[in-house]
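During the second year of the project, the team shifted from modelling isolated chains to modelling whole assemblies. The rationale, set out in the original proposal, was that interfaces cannot be judged from single-chain predictions alone. As a representative example for this report, we include one of the complexes processed in the last quarter. Its constituent sequences, exactly as entered into the pipeline, are reproduced here:
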Amino acid sequence: MSPETARRLRLLQRILRHTLEPEEYEAVLGDLEELHAEIERRDGPRAAALWYGVQILRSLPPFLYHQLYWRLNMLANYLTLAWRNMRRHKSFALINILGLSLGLACCILIAFYITDETGFDRFHEHVDRIHGIRGAIYFDNAMANFDAQPPLADQLPALFPEVEAAVRVTREELVIRRGDRTFKETGLSTEPVFFRIFTFPLRQAATPSPLREPDTIVISPALAQKYFAAENPLGQTLSVRLNDQFKDFTVTGVLREIPATSSLRFDFAIPLGQLYGDILDQWDTGQHLPTFLLLKPHATAAALEGKFAGTVNARLDSKDPRSGYHLFALAGYHLSGDALSPVLGDTSSPTYSCILAGIALMVLLIACFNFMNLSVGQFSFRIKEIGLRKTLGAGRRELLRQFWCESIFTCLLALAAGSLLAFAFRGTFNQLAGKALNMHVLDNPWIWLGLFLLALGVGALTGSYPAFFYARHNAVDLFRQRLHTLGKERIARGLILMQFSMSIFLIIGTVFMHRQYRYLLHRELGFDSQQVVVIPLDDLSAEWRRSTAFFPTLKQKLLARDAIRAVSGAQFGMSSFWASTAPMLPSGQRTLIDLNWVDEDFLKTLDIGLVQGRPFSRDFGSDAGQSFVVNERLVRQLGLTEPLGRQLSELFSSGFLEGKIVGVVRDFHVRSLHKTIYPALMLPGEPESFSQMFVRIDGSRMEEALAGMREDFQAIAPEIPFRYSFMSDDLAAQYSLESRWSRIIRYGSVFSLLIACSGLFGLTLLAVVRRTKEIGIRKVMGASILGIIRLVCRDFFWLIIAANAIAWPAAYFALQRVLAGYAYRPHLEWPVFWGAGLTALLIAMVTVGSLALRAGRANPVDSLRYE
Amino acid sequence: MVKLLSRAEELVLLSVGCLGDEAYGVTIRNHVIESTAEDWSVGAIYVPLERLAKWGYLETVMSDPTPERGGRRKRFYRLTPSGLAALRHTREVHDELWSRMPAADSCPDGDA
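Output from the structure prediction step:
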């Protein structure tokens, strides 16, 4: 054959080589060459080369089939072996499968969690074109964010060709009544174009464009069920309380179920004009409405934002060049970690997905390492089998394949068990993570496929260490058991080291997350939230409350009861943001100040310590609107030496704050502990402006107090459902995220330690079995039980000590980053670090020690007679 | 228990038996082509050959390298007693079936 022809055919030959055993390949190629030479003589080189190529191509299908046939035959053989091997060593199989299935179950749950997180709002047809618009005004030390000025939604599509449509959406909590059913519901007020921009299909609709008529309402299936049960809601009326009067609305549409992955959640939608009709064309009322844009298909948000300068930004009252309107994409909203919009729900940070994935991977890795160590560790049981296979001609390839088969088989079993586990515990997980994952195969085929591939990958990876271990040693070594030094096997020790590093890392993380949460809950806030009941008043309008003197009447009635100690009210609650202002200081700087309008018993009810001066009082007629109580931070920030009696107008220029300081209180936390304390200023407020009433009750007579409150409330406002909450609960709810994370990471660390220790248990079991005779002889020679225990434990002891050296710095840096998000946090204290290390060491030593004790106490006669 | 051979296996096995000591890929293929008057690819010959070898119906020997094959060795095949038994068994099955069939001229007309 000419060299040129040979080169052309090399690719085909190479394919052939991979489908055939070496001897077959040689014979086939030889035959082909021989025939080729003959044809070349007879018909010339071109015809011969063509024949050669055609022959190979025609031969490939039967060869491939042949190969597959024998591979499958072998596979069945390997699986039988793996199965028998598992049954013979049940404890190891159990450790492996339980560990791996726990690890995989964690991965399954996390995979669903992450898919859910990243898939938020994706169900909107135009999700990539929907953007929210927000404004920002910058001060020297602070920035304020707000929604769009109302007329902007009308202006934007006219001004900029890239804007296809704009809609104003506000979130409303309104009382809805039908017959004897009266509930407070959460919904939206918006414009008809809303249903064109967002994809919220209607299950039933009376008109093609709902909300076009002023007195119409669209409701969710839940609301339809609640108010209409089996009746058809279309065309029926619901009474909605707007501005203190029930007004009838006709139901013109019922939504389909809103997907759980929607940031926008609502139970009803009414026309925007009902509540905001008079401000829709007003720029400067100070009222802002959340606004969303639908961009044209190829327009970009960045380009549009660039055009805002000099046009819509000119409407903002700010000289700072950074101030202006900006856009945020709906698609990225959920994972932005910043709750930017009052109509969209909570966001979450991608950090949490990363932490969760990290924990799940660690648990899985620890289980994988167990499998690797145990299957290599079982060599003493399998040495004869492997040696025999090698002697009978099993090559490296066959051994590798066998071990891979075994590990992949184990992993698939574990995946099946893990799926069942994940499925069984999905309720618990949903509760922990605050999700509603259903995990059905049909709904999420790609995730399950991915998980199947993950299990295959884990199996392949895990099998490679034992496979290469056995393939490396020759048959003679294996028969002579020249591998006594397994405990000293560097890889095995490295794996144990990593397992325990990860476990200790997670324990440290658990302790600190828990401490952080406890710290947030129990930190001295500067006021006493225990036994304070909060009654929201904003179900009732200010006008109505003024006309009925609601607040003073209720307060008076409540104070007449024995079980009630004190009553106060404020415009803003203690677990929500206060108002803030950023007045100009004489130095030319602006500083952010928290503001609240409160009544004279505010300090007393919440037990806020007074440092100087006095609280507001009715006895001082001048107090109304003329006097302030400030916190110490404000005194310090302004550098006042003699704060009492100072006129605010001398201190800084603020248009609306007029009066003098009458009292100074200790600093207390207005914002959640994620933030520092800002200067705060309290003004005497009009009772009708109060949104909340605070009632300090006698803790021992709680039932009585609550019943009394309900009675008094209903006596004045019988139409309004009475609602209340405990202030301490409201405050704790600010830290639900921390509570959740502290619990999730606790599960992770318990699993990881459990799996790591079960692996250690298996390894010790192997070591003890292998050294039965050695231990027997040592005992005959006079070794004590303690000496035997020390002998068995020694190696592991030092490994776990060394694991701390890796875990501590890693945990330190990780925690520093995580805890950096808190303005208030406990120190990273060393006792926690060595405490975690000690815990891991103790648990591990108990595991190992119990086995060692059993080995040590065995009668040497039994062990020496063994065989 | 002897397996019933497929047609390809039977042809290949018979050819190996006929060729005696000269049975290797090229000669076997030529023999099969001659006797069936159909074109058989190299792969179509080797797959049944190797399968029969794995079942133990054929034994294989690698020859010394020969220059006309690019220095590659030949793989010679020889019929084993169990291979012969399998051939006999297959033939018996055939004969049994033939014997039960009525005489060819009494078959109804049609597809014949």
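The CA atoms of residues 49 and 62 of chain B lie 14 Å apart. Chain B is about 55% helix and 10% strand.
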